[in-house]
Amino acid sequence: MKIVATIARYLLGLIFLFFGSNLLFHFLPNPPLPAGTAGQFLVALFAAHYFYVVGAIMVLSAILLLVNRFVGLGLTLLGPVLFNILTYHLLMYPSGIGLGAFATLLWLLVGWEHRVVFARLFAARLEE
Q1: Tell me: the pLDDT tens digits for 11-34?
Q2: Of 55, 76, 63, the residue nearest 13 (C-alpha)
Q3: CB 110 within 8 A of CB 71
Q4: What are the structural domain ranges in the chain?
Q5: For the CA atoms of 79, 126, 69, 81, what is the dihedral angle to 10 degrees?
Q6: C-alpha 81 chain-centroid distance
Q7: 93 and 51 in contact (C-beta within 8 Å)?
Q8: Segment holding 32, helix H or strand E
Q9: pLDDT tens across 52-82, in order?
Q10: Contact in structure between 37 and 93 (CB atoms under 8 Å)
Q11: In the chain, fewer beta carbons within 10 Å around the N or the C end?
């Protein structure tokens, strides 16, 4: 399981490094915006420069995963990003959910390997 989690950590790091860097530096051509609410939502995020913040969080998290330092922090920062990716696709643009679902699976594999980091989060109360 450790080898699978290591491969998952590297894949997750590479995915978010690539796509986070693209949000910051725009090296991939932009596909046409989807119609309806999904396109309007993306236009609002671009207009507010919100994608720069998301891209920076993705790149920082990816670096933490790739260098295998503070992996719990990297996973914690990526959790809300993945939640928003999945929510966007589930509610507004279901046809593009594939990569988000794959990244979530990788996140769960890495999170399971590093579950000791999250143990205190799920404690009912602090033991003194």
Answers
A1: 999 999 999 999 999 999 988 999
A2: 63
A3: yes
A4: 2-25+34-122
A5: 10
A6: 5
A7: no
A8: none
A9: 999 999 999 999 999 999 999 999 999 999 9
A10: no
A11: C
pTM across the whole model: 0.91
> For residue 31, how far is the Cα from the chain centroid?
20
Separation of alpha carbons 65 and 83, rounded Å:
18
Taking phi first (over 0 means left), then psi (-120 to 50 degrees means alpha), and beta for anything else, what does residue 36 get?
A: left
Burial class, 111, CB count within 10 angstroms (exposed 0-12 / middle 13-18 / buried 19+): buried
Tokens 């914690």, residue located: 76
Taking the C-alpha atoms of residue 9 and residue 27, their distance in angstroms, rounded to an integer, is 24
The span from the CA of 87 to the CA of 105, in Å, is: 15
Specify whether the backbone of 49 is left (phi greater than 0), alpha (psi in -120 to 50) or beta.
left
Dump pLDDT digits (tens) for 86-95: 999 999 999 9
CA nearest to 62, candidates 120, 105, 9: 9
